[in-house]
Structure formats: structure tokens, C-alpha cells
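Reopening this ticket.

The earlier resolution said the output was attached, but the attachment link was broken on my side. Pasting everything inline this time so it's all in one place.
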Amino acid sequence: MLHRVRAVLRHRLKFLAHLRSCDAGTVAAVIALGLARVLLPAAGAAVTGWLLSSLDGDFTRPLLFLGAILLVGQAIDIGSRWAEFLAVSRINLVHRAEVARLATEVATVDLVERDEVQDLLKTAAADPTEWVEKTPGEGAIGALNVLLGYVGLLATAAVVAAWSPWLLPGLILPALLVRHLTIGLWKRHYLIWVEGIEHHRRHQYWGALTASRAEAKELRIFGLADWIIDRRQREMRAHLEPVWADDGAIVRAQWKPFLITLLPLIAVFAAIASVTVDQNGSIGLASAALAASWGVFNAASGVGPMIEMEGSRPGIDALAELRRLLADDRPNRPEQPERLDAGTAEPPLVRLEGVRFGYGRHREVLQGLDLEIRPGEHLAIVGFNGAGKSTLIKLLAGAYRPTGGRITCDGQDIDASGDWRSRLAVVFQDFVRYRLTIAENIMLGRLGTGERDTVAEAAAEAGLGGLLATLPQGLDTSLDRSLEDGADLSGGQWQQLALARALYALKRGAKILILDEPTAHLDVRSEKQLFDRLDGLTEGVTTVLVSHRLSTVRRADRIVLIEEGTVKEQGTHDELMERDGEYARMYRIQAKRLESGFDDRIEEGELI
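Inline output:
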């Protein structure tokens, strides 16, 4: 029994601990207003008895008191809701910030990409979409209201006890039984709902497709509308039919709590009435006891706050599990990247020594790769799809750790270098399209106070000058089409914007420019113009370029061909052509295709 009490206390404290996220004033307001709210029924019962006892005399004072209680009750209800809203909002804000911090402060992204962690992140986000989901703030306030409810129970019980303490067991015990039965029904319903949550998610997925811009054309061209609607309806029924069946079972089971509530109250009310009549007792005291009896039963049987606690438990438990999985993987680095002096810092010597890496349980993509990236050189990396080019870039950028071997910067492991990432300017193949202004998108390349002229220079150097001239807001144009003055860009323009972000980072001190298919959405002419500009912009900077177009890489100082996760060939373009190996064969095939007019731009959605 003692063990059970301790477990319940730990359970309550886990929720109450979240109140520390609020300021003391808000917590004090929630407690004060909550106490007033739970004490009002007892006060109302007592004043009602006083009023009825005074009907044969001057009942002005008790009437005024009763009116005041009713008015104060309304004010307390409004104030309590507002204070709880502030507390819930603050707790949820802190909780979600902690989830975001855990997800973004891990040293590499491989942990975050795990299915287990993705599920935990979705659960811990505490962003309810269904009635079964509650937030940590709601759980904390629910736990507090459970405690306050016991205070209200004691207050109403005291009013009943003033008439007869022997009535209390007849009220409290049936009420606790009603609570037990109600919680049992709710938990069963909750489990049935959660068991079908995968069907619910698929139902939402198919529903979202019907209103998606991207899929709209295929729905119409391929005549998929009826098929998708049918899939959505099937998933909805698979989820909700067991829920609907349990709804019926709950309705049919209501006779138990109904009788458990009705019979004791009838007995108590009859006893109070009988004794009052037979013994010519005080009508006022009897009325107070009657009103308080219902208050006792209500306080003891209420389950609302407990539902809020149980509904918020998954999010709270998921955050605790995320802390266990991710907290120890935070890198030891400054909170903000160190700003390097672009005028004095030199590009480092980077080595990949026996680097091995594979995604999960799949075959290793890199299998003992050795590569030296010399300071200030223009290095190009080529190879067939799946050879490991983009994986190499992600490892070099520190997004993943090698499963074997190491990557060093001037002889030091990049994991131990606190400023490694501040040395990089990266354009990933799958760059992100942020719904910010053009200027803000560019300044993401190096957070901090940005110079407007530097942003404009980076945009022009990336080839965005012509586009900016056509936009009324220029650099301040929002790239969110949902806004009145918002705009969107083509695939090629977004890629130029991503490149501008990297060029801005170079201007702010980065010394290694990493480009993973930076011109995949551009035609050959636009690509040539861009690289002609880059030749004059990357002096004194190490450039690592991955491109599927071999005509682009021929100007590189050194070209590395990767095959099956290792370096197969390397040298200048002329050296590799003279060697007449795999690179030369690939180059001649591409040259013939381009001469025939083949457009090898990667279309939207092809990059993965």
C-alpha cells in the first residue's frame, strides 16, 4: 500500500514539476484562483443554509452574501481560465523549446534520422491534433487541479459533517467507485483510439493529397480523385469503427455509474429530510448539507484533470526518452559559430583517412576512402549515382560521423575542432527553401549582424540580379506565397539563392566552399556563366564540387572519380582523358549527348 502511495506521489510530482517553467506570479495566481474556485461550492452551500434559516427574519445579509458568491464565482472562473491559459502556454513553450534544442544540438543528424527518434520527436512535440492528446501544460494544470480538488472535497465534507459526519462514507466511497469506473472506461476508449492511430495518420495523408498543389495535376490527369477518396474513407473506417463500437459500449455501461450515483444520493437526501422533519431540525442546516452532499460527490468523482494528466503523459515521457538518447551527443562547441577573419585565415589541409560509412544496416557506401583536400585547391568529385559522392559531402560537413576512419583538419579530428563548421560554406543537393525574405535566406549562411551591401553582392554574384530587379520589394521580398506580397521562385532560382547563401558565408570568413550539384536546375549556358563568375570569387578558398556534368568539372585543379565507395581515379581533366579510363568514357558519352541537344537539368522533385 505504501509503495502504491509513493508511486502516485511520484506520478503527481512529475507533472507538477513543469510549473517551474512559469514565473512565480502566474503560478500563485493559478493556485489562488483555483483554491477560490474549489472552495466556492462549500461557501455557497453554507450561505444557502444561512439564507434559508433567516427567511423568517432579516435575510438581507445572507442574500447579499449569496449574490456576491455568485458574482465572485463568475469572476473567478474567468480569471482562473486566463491564469491557466498563461501557465499552459508558458509550460508548452519551454517544453517545445527543449525538444527543438535536443533535436538541433546533437553533433550529427544520424541519430535524429532514426525512426525511433523521429517518432519520439513527433510525440514530444506536444502539438495535439486529436482529443486524446494533451500538452504538458495541460497535464501540469490537471495535476494541480487534482490536488486543489481534494481541498474542495474537504471543504464540502466539513459542511456535511456539521450536519452529520456519518454521511461522508456514504457519499465519498460511491463517488470514488464512480471515478474508478469512469477512468476505466476512458482508458479503454483511449487505448482503442491509439491502437488505430496509424490508420488515422494514413487517413490524414490521403486527405491532404486532395488539397495539395503538388499533387493536384496528377489527380486530374490520371483520374485518381475517386481512388484517393476511397482510400481515405477506408482508413477512416478502419480507425473509427472500433471507436464507434466502444462509444456504444460506454453508453450501455452508464447504468452502473448512474445507479452508484443515484442510490447513495437518494439515501443521503432522504436521511437528511427525514431527520429534519422528525426532529424539527434546522431547514437551513439541512439545505446546506444537501447542497454540500452533491459537492462532495462531484469533487470525489471528477475525472477531467486526471484525463488531462494521462493525455499529456506520452509527450512528457517522450521528452525524457529523447534526453536519454540525445543529450550525451551534444558537441563541445561555442553556442554561436566563431567568426573567422576573412583577411588572415587560411584554408586548412583536410584529410579523409580510411573513411567508412553506411546508412543503418544497409551496405557501406564508403569503404575505406582516402582523400586529401589541399588548401586553396579546386577539387571536383564525380561518379555514378550511389557511388557515395553526396555521402562524402555530408561527412565532410559534419552532418554524419564516419563509422570507420577519420576526417582531420590540419591534423586535428574535425569532431574535436570547435570552429570546423564555421569554416564551411555549403550548398547541399537537397537545400531547404525557407519561407523568409530573400535577404534573410541569404544571411542564414552565417548568422549574426549582416551588412546589406554584402547580402546584395552575394545575390548578384549568384546570378539573382535580374530577378531582384523585377521584384518591387527586392531583397525584402518574402518567399511565402501565402502572404499578400509573397513570391515563389523556380527551381533554378532557388538553387541560385542557396548558392548566394554560401557566397555570403565566404564573405563572412568561411574558407571551404562545398557545392553538391549546385547547378542541377540550371541549363548549360547559365551554369557556364555562373562558374565564370565563381572563378574570380573563390581565390584563396578551397572548393569541393560535386556535379553530374563533367563539362563543369574539367576546369578543376583535380578531379576525383569515386566508385563503390573508394577513389578509383584522380588527376586533372587532361590527365584523366589521356589515361582513357572510366572518367574519359563517361566524359565522351556526356559530350555526345550535349552535342545532340540533350537537356540534362534535374527537374523539381528528382533530387533525393
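Reporter confirms the inline version is readable. Residues 2-329 form a domain with the ABC transporter transmembrane region fold fold (CATH 1.20.1560.10). Strands lie at 350-358, 364-373, 378-382, 404-409, 412-413, 424-427, 512-516, 542-546, 558-563, 566-571.
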